[in-house]
Every structure is written in C-alpha cells, then in structure tokens.
Amino acid sequence: MTEAxxxxxxxxxxxxxxxxxxxxxxxxxLAEVVVPAVLERSGVPARDVDxxxxxxxxxxxxxxxxxxxxxxxxxxIAGVATNQHCAGGLSAVAIAAGSVRAGMDKVVIAGGTESLxxxxxxxxxxxxxxxxxxxxxxxxxESPEAPAFDMSITVGExxxxxxxLTRLDVDEWAVYSHAQAIASIxxxxxxxxxxxxxxxxxxxxxxxxxxxxxxxxxxxxxxxxQLRLLHPELPNPTVTAGNAAGLNDAAAAVTVASDxxxxxxxxxxLARIRSWASVGVAPALTGLGPSxxxxxxxxxxxxxxxxxxxxxxxxxxxxxxxxxIRKLGIRPEIVNINGSGASLGHPIAATGARMVVxxxxxxxxxxxxxxxxxxxxxxxxxxxxxxxxx
Length: 390
Fold this sequence. Notes:
There is one protein chain. The chain is globular. Helix 1 packs across helix 2 (64-71). By secondary structure, the protein is of the alpha+beta class. The chain has helices spanning 27-42, 64-71, 88-101, 151-163, 167-186, 221-224, 259-264, 289-301, 319-328, 348-366; strands at residues 4-11, 15-16, 51-55, 78-82, 107-115, 122-124, 133-135, 197-200, 206-209, 248-258, 271-280, 310-313, 370-377, 381-389. The protein is 32% helix and 22% strand. Strand 6 and strand 7 (133-135) form a beta hairpin.
C-alpha cells in the first residue's frame, strides 16, 4: 500500500491576536510566508506539487490556498479550502494524506492559516426591512446547555463538569503548559520549525518576528487564582482567561508525499502519517471529542494507547486535556510536553497543522517513534492523527 509521508514542515511563530506582532498581517500574508518555506525545505520541484490545501476559519470564505498559489507564481497548482473549525489544519493534512494514499496525488502541501487580528466581518440581509446586519456562522444550533457563541460554557465548563474537574485541576494544567512552552522556547526546540516573519514597522523598517510570544513566564497557580471567573453564576465554575486558549495569529504547513515519490527522488521523509479519525459528539460534550477520536485513530493504525510515546491534546480549555487524560488513562507526563493552546496559543485554522509540525520535530528530537495529536472542534467534533517518526 502506498504510504503518506511528511517530507518537510514549517510554521510561523505564533502571535498574540489584536495586540501582538502579527496584527498588521492577514491570513493571506501569513500563508505567503509559510507555503514557499515548506516547499523549499522539501526539495520538491514546484512542478511536482499536485495541490495546496489550506484550512481557514474566520476569513470570510473564498479559497486562500488558490490565492497564494497564484501569488507565488504557482499557477498550475490547484487550491482547496477546508474548514473543520479548530481541527481545520489537521483535516487539511488528513485530506492530503488520503489523496496520496489513494494514488490520486503524489505531492500535496497542506496546513492552515489564521489571522484572528484581521478576521472578516460578514453581513446578511436579515435585519429590519432586509437591511444588512453583522452575521457569524454558528458552529451548531443554539441551546441553553451549549451556547453557540460561548465556548467557555460549551467546551470549558461542560467538560470540567462531566469529569468533576475543579478550578485547581485546570489551573495546575495551565501552569504546566506555560512552563513546558517556555522550556521549549529556551531550549531552542522550536527554532527549526519556525519561519521568521518580516513584519513592517510604522517607521518603514522591517522587524523579523521569530519567537512565539504568547507563553507567559512565571505563571503560577497563585497568580491564576486571582483571575476573574468567566461564569461565576455557574455551580463550581472553573474557566478563566488563564486556563483557556488564546486568540492568536499564525500559519503552518507540511509537505505530504507518497513513499514511492520520496524514494524515487532521493528525499528522506521525516515521518509517516499512520492514521487519522474524526468523530461527532453532542455539542454540549465537545470537549470530550479527543477521548473518542484518539481510540478511533489508534484502532485504524492497529495500535493501542500503550504504543504511543507522546500526545498533544489541544488546550482549547485546559479541561480538555485533563479530561482526555482521565478518561483514557494516559500518563500526564507524555502529554503537551511543548505546551499547547493555553500557552503557545490557538490560531484556529492553523493549530492542527502546527501540532503536526511540532509533534514531528519533538518525536525526532527525542528519538521516539509514535505520537498522537488531537483536539476538539466547535459544533461537537473531535479529531486525531497518529504520526510515526522516521
């Protein structure tokens, strides 16, 4: 059977949305940085790339991937847009892997791009007398137990309640996540992953942005305990800004190719994509998505939890990885060892691809074999992918 292998990876550093280093760049600009970088790192001639698949979430529709292909002079490369909310970047990689495994494509660049600093405002003619009003596509139908526009309840609080988690449980995880992210930055573990981004400055100069800026040094349980609860009216509330994911800007991508193509062209793969899976759950149980998607992906790969060296479970809210660990019996010390959404940040459409980039690098750095990346996604979904370092 044809295997889908990862030939190269690249990501931008992650910026803080609306007041960080990337506010002047939109999702198109960020993709225009990461796509040529991942192509150059692959050693694949542009003429051999069959397709470019990029996730996008809040950019107003369209097909950013095709726009970027044309910007880069790659007119003969088709572009595909995908949206699976928080799992969009991971679904883009899965689409690429599936097409390669099926023998339809030999080489696909896949990832995601997100600028929450510059997310589009959409209107619909549903106002009085048919006048335009601001509109956002809801991830699921509104309900009291799962508000469509308040994920702190739908994901954060509901997940904590389902597993009986306390505020201390999730605050302690947030402290751990920030410490792991800072240690990874200080250790230089992200350096080879990151493509520095030239950022225009008001005085006409250019600054090179090359380090994730969201992790907070010196984060403590005592400090987080001082933060305001988002929903103090709820019984046993847990969610604060300190134990939730950030609003962020970034792009990430990987080059996926068939193992036959890699061998024929003398390319050394970094990793093999063993399997992937998506699941649906009730919207009120969105945060439990990873605990269902992970076993499904492992079963498809013929593996068990005991076979896996490292996990990353995105911290949309810190209740999500804690709940996943408890439901599946995963050892906490092998989860989110480089940080995740609460510390590194959560650039929605790019996060899944960023997780793949980071997992490939960390598995290879440690000499480990198998890793799983997983996340919940708005609307009641979960996704997971099994990666084998080569």
